[in-house]
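Example (one chain per record):
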Amino acid sequence: MRVYLGLGGNMGDRAAALAEAVDRLRAAGLELVAASRIYETEPQGRRDQAWFLNQVVAVETQRDPAAVLGILVDIEQAMGRRRLVHWGPRIIDLDLLLYGDRRMHSGGLDVPHPRLHERAFALVPLAEIAPETEIPGQGTAAELARLRRAEPGQTVRPWPARAPAPVRSAGSTRAGLLERLRMGGGRAQSGSDLARELGVSRAAVWKHVRRLRVEGYDIPGTSGSGYVLRGEAGELDPLTSADLTDGRRARVGRVLHVLHSVDSTNFLARQLGLAGTADGTAVVAEEQTAGRGRNGRGFLSPVGGVYVSVVLRPQLPPAQAGRLTLLGALAVCEAIEGATGLRPSIKWPNDILLPGGKVCGILLEMVAREDCVDFIVLGAGVNVRSCPPGVDAISLKAAGADIGRAAMANAILDRLDADYVALESGRWPDLLSAWRRRCSTLGQAVEVASVGGGTLAGIAVDVSLEGALLVDVGDAVRTVFAGDVRHLRPPAGHPAAATGQRPRG
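Predicted structure:
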């Protein structure tokens, strides 16, 4: 369905706000197919404010009007929009102008926008990309734009910045590539021919072939012969708010944002946290384009995984925030075991392992004052149907578990909710005991590389109450708060290696 959206704002860096809103629309899974130039427009209703920048974009989506409106409201909130003064200044304003030829007037949802025919700041950019579009009962966008632009108080002028380049969606390019490979009937097609037909570079063709392979398509290719589609991928179940909403959850997932693609679920969750979102707000995505790992590392997040970040506001001092990393690892292990029957282990501090490799990573980010935690973002990325290429990783599917992404996402949200409620109820010792039983690092000879560059080697004998690793180095037990752990074979004759005892500290 072709949908037209109006974007505007008159606070801060107005052009940057429009660009961010467009990026967020893409990240929410709306396929951008056209964008008008940016226009500077006279403020309506109240003249005691800065002029606006406005733009209209066209998107393709199968979501219903209510779902599209929900995405717009979510983006406004994530960018700091506050609906305090009618016609007042705003950092971003997103309007659903037209949804095909649908007409709706119920439940606070009005389509077409009830005042579209009166507003030059929306009509002029709309007429630029869809001049013959009919505004029901009023006329075409081009006719109405000419009329309104001539009226006092409706000044619309092109913004000096260069107009955006024509939009080509990565998703539509990949779909076109897949269609051409299918039409090849098993015959190899050269990368240069495919690039010319799709209007992209050969490097872009290679990038999309790699992505299709990650999604499970069998596309061999060799220099001089080209690419051929040998086998289709298993269908990936979409993630939707309807499938992931569960009113039985007490905290986690009561507020839920579900996206097809996003730069980073942790980044978006952090923005929501700064904007005051509720305790337990969850962001779930099918793909991350700029996922983040520990210590600023990249985290490959292809289609086929489940990526979850949760905003938590625990009643803990900052010194105890590390408990949430352990809680997240425990909850994911419990979710995987409950949903698939597989029993993963935990490598301190935040890697979830199955025989064959890493199946999940956990990332904790905190916003705190001196004596209290404002909020914590707990992120988890699980390899469900696929895993990143070229790393020591395994997917649940490769491990023998044929589970859909929605089922896995629900299991993760359920266990995070249950364990977080247990933490807030004072049951941390029980959670920590459950974490210890699943930790494969305890009792192991390890080498730990600290963030500052030093290393130490010894036997990992326990974790502290706050989750720090206790390492027996022979003449002392060292406390490690952060670092990268490598499992080694226990040195001969070490008492802990011989007895397997784990002193409690």
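Caption: Confidence is low (pLDDT under 50) at residues 161-169, 491-505.
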